[in-house]
Amino acid sequence: MGKTLQYAYYPGCASQAITKEANATTRKVAKILGLKLHDMPKANCCGAGLLTDYDYDLSIALNARIFAQAEEMGMDIMTICSTCLMVMSTANRDLKNDPKLLEKTNEVLSSVGIRYNGTIKVKQLLWILAEDYGLDKLKTKVVKSLKNLKVAPFYGCHSLRPADALGFDDPEKPWSLEALIEALGAEAVEYHGKTKCCGFQVDLVAEGTALEMAGKRLLDAKGEGGRCMVTPCPFCHINLDNYQGISEKKLNQKIDMPVFHLAQLVGLALGMTAEELELSRHLVSTKDILKEANLLA
């Protein structure tokens, strides 16, 4: 019997508030697969990238505080937020590459009696399923093949870039999301916008541009035969699902593209119901696509 995979679980702020279904479903899927997720009740916000630009040293210290807690737990960190993934991975890279920065940061952390030794890794659920757990093993857990689904993968910027900090997928030619889709029995749809930005980062400064970007990604996927989309990023889900209706008005074109969180797509293949997956929280209904693919209970 293989060793149990255990992680210090860092869902991120968005998945505990706006996209609660992503957090809830991840916990259910992990339980079915035998992944042990250990909460980090003392963990703080990573800063979401905004703090990095405002106060770099403070951002590094706050992220090192998260790492130190995981290190004390003896586990790598698993997150389901791509922005948290990017921010923490970048901070971790800087701390590991710069001994002086690590020493200076540990002087700050010493005031609260903790220390980071630079030993942990930050991973997202997609990477863990693709590599740590393994797609061949995941295939054996599928009880309801998604063979009738044509799924468009949408990585999101922060799952791929900066490549030197993340170090998993090629940012121009990634493979993991397509491979996971196919491991679940579905067809991965190839389209131009799968590695591009959803527009979330410009929502507050150029809403019209952001809505156009989201709409174009969805229409691009639909134009290549995608019947639904999956993303590992809760912020991308907000732009692609929550704001899809506004994007339709902006582009004066109907889109009607259901968007799944990564854990929800996995959960479907594991036999979970729409209720268990909390699909009713989505603004774009998944009912028609699930009925079409014979996936409704």
Summarize the structure.
The chain is built from 13 helices and eight strands. The model has no long low-confidence stretch (mean pLDDT about 95).
Explain what you see.
By secondary structure, the protein is of the alpha/beta class. The protein folds into two domains: 6-123, Glutathione S-transferase Yfyf (Class Pi), Chain A, domain 2, CATH 1.20.1050.140; 143-292, 3-Layer(aba) Sandwich (Rossmann fold), CATH 3.40.50.11810. It is built from 13 helices and eight strands. It has helices at 20-33, 50-54, 56-73, 82-97, 99-109, 125-141, 163-166, 176-183, 207-223, 234-242, 244-251, 262-269, 287-292; strands spanning 6-10, 36-39, 77-79, 122-124, 150-153, 187-188, 228-231, 259-261. The strands form two sheets. The protein has a four-stranded parallel β-sheet, sandwiched between helices. It starts with 5 loop residues before the first strand and ends in a 5-residue tail after the last helix.
